[in-house]
Design brief:
Number of helices: 12
CATH topology of the domain at 183-339: Transferase(Phosphotransferase), domain 1
Shape: globular
CATH superfamily of the domain at 183-339: Transferase(Phosphotransferase) domain 1
Helix content: 25-40%
Oligomer: single chain
Strand content: 15-25%
Radius of gyration: 23 Å
Structural class: alpha+beta
CATH class of the domain at 183-339: Mainly Alpha
């Protein structure tokens, strides 16, 4: 007998396929739906997410009825209540089963992101197959853009390395290498201006390389950037499906970028490096405390013509005027403190 009442709100809201929650047989699915509705109705629970959960339960139930009738039902490897925390099993196109391990899962614009100590896995819908194909091509091309060994050593620490990719019936997966000391910027919480300073310093340095390589990323934000407090470094691991060559037609942009990228680029529909510089500035303003005034003028000023100019202005004018000589300011951050229940 299935125990659906053990599923918590967060778990129910993570479910995207009705097959993971309901049974294929209509009568059984109806009983499961009614049981869940009783458990999550606001008259029976004071849970703050009850109404949102109810809406998800109804949407999944409606989709379950459609799939059971039109023959598109695909039974999952395991039902939602049987899933183990920190592990997701998917059935690949060849019928084999692949396990994805993670300590953090969150939805992103085109799918889901799974974060583990040594990898991040992007789960992207098949309707975005062409975008992910271009992302892989761009990532693989980065290594051929280095001018010399010195540049390769310096820039590789900011850039993604593909470990593997695979497909299920509904999703495609891209696995990127990371190290245990790297954390998603969106999870970092409140940051002092000293830490915002080195994060942006790294991103401006990366922007110089992207401009040199003739590539625009177009999606630099807190859900694509990872930071290493230990090494005072960043890695741009996500969002590469929005990247393209400078001057090429923009195939897609995340909603978060549409409000930030210069209007001239949006009107032309062609990729330009000013987009990444604007996104870095907007990210900096987002990370700074509301009352902080020392660094805001530099981030609110007109963007320079090139990434190198912007980087030099930031490093030699903004940072030196605010902090003086460079010094290491420890950022105390670890997995236990960020992701404890």
């Amino acid at each position: 007998m299935r125990n659906l009442k053990k599923l918590e709100a967060e778990k129910l809201l993570e479910i995207t396929e009705p097959e993971a929650l309901y049974s294929r047989e209509p009568k059984m699915a109806r009983e499961e739906y009614r049981s869940l509705v009783k458990a999550w109705h606001p008259d029976r629970t004071d849970h703050p997410m009850a109404r949102t959960v109810l809406e998800r339960l109804l949407a999944l139930y409606r989709e379950a009825k459609i799939k059971s009738l039109d023959g598109t039902w695909v039974e999952p490897v395991e039902k939602a209540e049987a899933e183990e925390p920190g592990r997701k099993r998917v059935r690949l196109e060849d019928g084999s089963i692949k396990a994805i391990f993670y300590y953090r899962r969150l939805p992103v614009e085109l799918g889901n992101l799974y974060i583990d100590d040594h990898s991040v896995t992007f789960e992207i819908g098949l309707e975005f197959e062409e975008l992910l194909k271009e992302a892989r091509k761009t990532i693989y091309s980065l290594s051929s853009s280095f001018a010399d060994k010195e540049m390769a050593i310096e820039m590789s620490r900011y850039l993604p390395e593909i470990l593997e990719s695979f497909r299920s019936r509904h999703y495609q997966y891209l696995v990127i290498r990371k190290t245990p000391d790297q954390f998603l910027l969106a999870d970092a919480g409140k940051l002092e201006k000293e830490h915002v300073a080195w994060i942006l310093n790294n991103l401006y340095n990366l922007a110089c390389f992207l401009e040199y390589a003739g590539i625009t990323h177009n999606a630099i934000n807190t859900e694509t950037v990872f930071i290493s407090p230990l090494r005072h470094s960043v890695m741009l691991l996500g969002g590469w499906w929005y990247s393209c060559k400078t001057g090429d037609e923009l195939k897609a942009l995340p909603d978060s970028s549409l409000e930030i990228i210069p209007i001239s680029i949006l009107e032309s529909g062609r990729a330009g490096h000013a987009a990444d510089l604007a996104l870095i500035k907007a990210l900096g303003l987002c990370l700074l405390e509301k009352g902080e005034t020392a660094l805001r003028p530099s981030l609110s000023a007109k963007t320079a013509d090139t990434a190198l100019e912007e980087y030099q202005k930031w490093k030699h004018e903004a940072l030196e005027s605010v902090f003086g000589e460079p010094k290491f300011v420890e950022l105390k951050m670890d997995k236990a403190s960020l992701y404890r229940k």
